[in-house]
Amino acid sequence: KNEVEQSPQNLTAQEGEFITINCSYSVGISALHWLQQHPGGGIVSLFMLSSGKKKHGRLIATINIQEKHSSLHITASHPRDSAVYICAVLYNNNDMRFGAGTRLTVKP
Amino acid sequence: DSGVTQTPKHLITATGQRVTLRCSPRSGDLSVYWYQQSLDQGLQFLIQYYNGEERAKGNILERFSAQQFPDLHSELNLSSLELGDSALYFCASSGGLARNGELFFGEGSRLTVL
Asked: Which residue of chain A comes nearest to B102, CA vs CA?
């Protein structure tokens, strides 16, 4: 069992739909990252959270430390949002573990 | 452009060989991280350096080693290569000790071991 569980594994949406990707982890963490990886392979950091909520454009990330759960929301999804979204948790000893990723496809 | 430079972008070699991957962090970033991404195991954290010193170790094999030089660039050395070492190797940098520090990723080095 992965220490970091993401759901769903795959997600197909129509352009304009609201999207939610979930991430759960099992032990206390220092911070959580949401990463985006496009088909070309490059990785971009979207958010780093240790509490609460952050928003950047159409992207919103939330974290509930007590419930060990984070969500990434995409409002008004667009085909260019198609990518793999990866949750990564940072432990206090600076070790980092990754979820398996959620493959998002947004159709026009 | 993240500002993190990795070389080489692609590398093909044979089993048993040794390779060195290089990473130049963003200007001013003191922390460098190495990650491996393979098809079967996904992304895995290998090792972190901060200002020349090792700060954290993840799933790094004994055949692998890394260092960070005074100019803050880092090298990941992979030796006695096996077929299973074929993967994308990413480097990332951040400005501090990694706690609550945004990560900036390089484009990766794709290693193929034949």
From this structure: A48
